[in-house]
Amino acid sequence: MHGHNFLFNQPLAIDSNYLLSLLPAIALGYRNNSFESAHTMEQRFGAGIKSQIENGINTGADQYPVVFNITGPIVKYTDWYYIGTQTMMRWLAYLDNDPAISGIVFNIDSGGGMVSGTAEFADFIKNMKKPTVSWTNDYQCSAAEWIASGCDYKMAGPHASDIGSIGTLLGFQDFSALFEKYGAKIYEVYSPESTEKNKDFRELLKGNNAPMEAELSKITQKFIKTIQDNYNGAIQDDGFVFKGKTYDAEEALKVGLIQEIGSLEEAMSKF
User: Which end of the chain has fewer CB atoms < 10 Å from its terminal CB, N or C?
Assistant: First the structure.
């Protein structure tokens, strides 16, 4: 049973430019009805992992590493074009219990995504028995950085362009004016007992951002604390790390977001 992902009207840990870059593909998918079922996507994802295991067995080695791809927006459930963190955790649990797996390299190319499910996934990685390395050669932003922080060792390729973006935002749309243009009006009537129900969004519609900003602040403080804890004090804050700035590989190395610049093959050689 799969849930649903929402990239709007909920807190997000995502780079804004990255979010905007996703919209054309999502719109085209809806227009052409080209989205695959979650079942099909999970089968393909699992087949890629099983193929690596078979290749490892065929080498005759007692142990071998596995590359675990995290690409595209971070979502909780598998749907649209994307593998969800809930699916990923099931496969990681399988790998974590395979004695032939020497370690796992997380190959990350993501500008972030949903807050929902991200903290759980990062904690899951942090508590794995197998040694883990995060590696990116492009995007590792926001929710993706949150996830990478759970790894034992952090690396990036020399061409990595955006690492960090530690922070949260709300993608909020109000379509009421569009509906009214076509003669539709939306009414919401709340019971007298439900004064707190949807209060933050009701305040947004009135132009009052303060309640939602307070909620985002709580999430961001948890995000920052997780990064600080998972990096064990290794972050050399330049005054911008925890304010949402992104860094290329060389800059990320200086502020401590990664520990080494190297290739994917070098990351795999850690095990």
Answer: N
